[in-house]
Amino acid sequence: MRVVELEEPQYNLNSEYWVPVLLSSGKKTEVSLKDLFVGSYDIQAIDTGDPLQDTAILGVALVILARATLRNNEIENFGGSPNWIRQMREPDADNLSGVLQYLEEFNDRFWLLGGDRPFMQVYDLHTAKGVTKPVSRLLLDSESEHYSMRAEKTLKSLSYAEAARRLVTIQAYDYSGIKSGAVGDPRVRGGRGYPLGVGWYGTTGKVIIHGANLMETLLYNIEYAQLTEESLDYDKPVWERDKPDTAAPRAYTGGPAAQYKDQPVPASGMCEILTWQSRRVRLHHDGERVTSVLISNGDKWFDRNTYADPLTGYRYSKNQSSKTEQVWMPQTHSTERTLWRGADALLTRLTPESEKQNKPAPVIRQLGLGRHFPTDAEVKVQLVGVEYGNQNAVIENVISDSMTLELSLLADEGLSVSHMVRESIRATMDAAIALGQFAGQLLQAAGREYEFRADATEALLNRMEDAFRLWLADQRATEDITEKKKEWQRHVHAVIKHEADLLKDNAGPKAMVGTFGKDSSGNDVLYNVARAERLLFRQLLKIIPLAYQDSASRSNREEPYE
Fold first, then answer.
1. Which of 298, 279, 21 is nearest to 161 (CA)?
2. DSSP letter for each residue of 109-122
3. Minimum mean pLDDT range among 148-152, 162-166, 398-402, 418-422
4. Which residues contact residue 488 at a Cβ distance below 8 angstroms, ignoring those fewer than 6 apart?
5. Which residues of 200-213 are buried (b: 16+ CB within 10 A; e: fewer)?
6. Which of 68, 49, 10, 264 is nearest to 169 (CA)?
7. CA separation for the pair 496, 399 (Å, rounded)
8. How far, CA to CA in Å, does 537 sit from each of 435, 446, 449, 545?
9. DSSP symbol at 466
10. Cα(542)–Cα(364) distance, rounded to whole angstroms?
């Protein structure tokens, strides 16, 4: 597709309505970047309907607040971050003067179209043949097998508002694969840009803390240890950099292109990494809408032992570590047991004696200090991530899960409670595994080969997620943890008993009678439903022993969280 550009329309992200939000009143609307902050005490959350877009836009907003705070020296003026946070949590128009001043100062860097520095783009990006791609390329699911071919054919253009949202998301989460080869990029071979990997956000499992309103959410997700006088000069977002991006990667300083080898550029801090330009992009329009796009390779990120991103945890990499260097990489989320594993990781504390353990997200670790926010506040913690497939060239799954908890569980005062919750998570997963074994033993009782039934285990964990969320939200540092632990174990026991009964009912008459076979010692054994049931509840007695306490007194009692 060849493009003839028309006169540039006037569309500035500071003043145009492009960010969908959910107001505290329950109403949905769209706001500009400026109004996103002006209304931040009345906005509940950014709400595009897509967790990836929400997260990418939130990253931009976080950086704007962080940079405005630094440039105006606000934290130091208030005597430290705790005092500044307390002030910012109170709805007051004066709190926003620094942010609005910042947006005005850099207003010319927020033009979506036009000028020599369009937002998150390269104004003269082009291929040798001057071709572009359809606007469907801005949609991250456009190459998925689930994407409608009919929709792709009829999607001829995007509004400027939607194009802005998609642009920010492409920079954050774009899939890997061959890109259009841009003129001026020394990495291009035969008109193609060869794979550099996914966007930075796609390599991470984002952990986002949501407060009572958008302002609280922004305050929760800034890592205050990074807001230093030194970072003012070196940790700059893309729109603050002295020189605009070109088709070439920032690591390239000229010279023979044939000798250039792409080297990852370490991020200087959270403002740079949260606005990382993993792609070079140029939007094309017809004067009213975006009609096509060019997307080529951008800057390769550096992911070893860089803790710049405050919204992701970091995992110890045994394979990449050596005797002389220990390596930590960004921690991703998995679609399997996201809630259970995510909650366990969230409540993990760093221990001095373990050098090789995973590290919680910095925004979670700073909450553990208990200095910035009241620990009796209730927050929602959201886990956002992506699973890519086919050599990271397509998005297969978008992960978004959440849990509500009191901040005390992340602070020192809630250490015993968080430890109890983690024990309960592990016990729940062990009990679910026991159910999977029970289901496999029913197969054996019916005359088939024993096979662990992972589907029974996963179905049980999925079923208990909502109950776990309710139970977790009910935990307080001041309450009796033994009773809370017993309460949950009783619930687990009740749910497993119900599931085991259903499995028994479906096992068939042959399983009830049983089948003779040999055990691991070569002895004759009658495998039947009764034997499998005895083994199941014998295991449960070890895994969730508190569920069996005072059983007589609670025989007719309704189980909690049903």
1. 21
2. G-BSSSSS--TTS-
3. 148-152
4. 424, 428, 468, 471
5. bbbbbbbbbbbbeb
6. 49
7. 27
8. 10, 20, 22, 10
9. H
10. 33
Distance CA 75, CA 216 (A): 16
φ, ψ (nearest 5 deg) of residue 313 = -80, 170
**Token match 């000798």: residue?**
259
On whether the CB atoms of residues 38 and 104 are closer than 8 A, the answer is no
Of 119, 297, 278, the C-alpha closest to 203 is: 278
Hunting for tokens 């000069």 — which residue is that? 233
From residue 519, give the alpha-carbon distance in Å to each of 52, 438, 440, 533, 540. Answer: 51, 16, 15, 17, 21
Handedness of CA 459, 422, 211, 162 (dihedral sign): negative
Residue 70 neighbours by CB under 8 Å, 6+ apart: 227, 231, 232
Cβ atoms within 10 A of the Cβ of 487, count? 18
| Single-letter amino acid code for the residue at 294 | L
- Give the pair of three-digit tokens for residue 295: 């997307």
What rounded mean pLDDT belongs to the chain? 91
Burial class of residue 509 in the structure, from the number of CB atoms within 10 Å of its CB (0-12 exposed, 13-18 middle, 19+ buried): exposed
CB-based contact 325:334 (threshold 8 Å): no
468 vs 488: CA distance, rounded Å: 8
In residues, how long is the chain? Answer: 562
Least confident of 73-77, 233-237, 493-497, 518-522: 518-522
Helix ranges, 297-414 (H): 338-346, 362-367
Whole-angstrom Cα distance, residue 215 to residue 200? 25
Q: Is 60 exceeded by the pLDDT of residue 2?
A: no
Cα gap 481→527, rounded to integer Å: 40
For residue 412, give both structure tokens: 């020192």
Q: Which residues pair with 188 in a beta bridge?
A: none
Name the nearest CA neighbour of 294 among 418, 444, 129: 129
Across 280-290, average pLDDT: 96
What confidence tier does 143 reach under pLDDT thresholds 50, 70, 90?
low
The two structure tokens encoding residue 542:
């070890």
pLDDT tens profile 211-246: 999 999 999 999 999 999 999 999 999 999 999 999
pLDDT band at 562 (very low <50, low <70, confident <90, very high): very low
Looking at residue 252, what is its pLDDT? Answer: 74
